[in-house]
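Our consortium's second objective concerns turning raw sequence data into structural hypotheses that experimental partners can test. To show how far this objective has progressed, the report includes one record in full. It was chosen at random from the queue rather than selected for favorable results. The single chain below, 203 residues long, was entered without modification.
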Amino acid sequence: MAQKTVAGPEIERLIQLLAKLPGLGPRSARRAALHLIKKKEQLLVPLADAMGVAVNEIGVCSICGTVDTSDPCTICSDPRREQDVLVVVEDVADLWALERAGAVNARYHVLGGTLSPLDGIGPDDLNLTSLVDRCAAEGFSEIILAISATVEGQTTAHYIMDQLSHLDVQVTRLAHGVPVGGELDYLDEGTLAQALKARTRFD
């Protein structure tokens, strides 16, 4: 039995587009659309304006691959950054997370994902060639691989290390193990095993 359409085509299109967003299924999209429509002046109109600005003004940085309203982006053009340290991340969301943490003041390179042969994602589908070219040209002293500790993430990290092996550069990665405030009973076996392998002297 075909599902009945309960709203006009414009509203249905809004719902369908919202449903394509991560974390929003059809039901959540319908609730979000209804909320936006009810709060038209407070939410829907400003959102539409912001979307228009985003379409016209936001682009991808030609150097690092992040999104910004300028090219080069704000980070790449900031002279106060450590110019000889490069942090490699999977996605822009990871870059934002590191910036929020304020733990590093380096430059970045966004890969656009990880290698995943099962999903048909190979080296040519990521910003890997530009990474190698950039490392060769700019002479970084350290490359920090801030990549997820997944199978795909580690495969990507090993691929990058192989591609950079001919360069005189130190390649490091984020420590994996027990998070601050974490209780051992709630951690998975892989995290515990990695924490034990990466144990350090207690001073």
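The partners drew two points from this record. The first helix runs from residue 9 to 18. DSSP finds seven helices and six strands in the chain. Both points have been shared with the crystallography group to help prioritize constructs.
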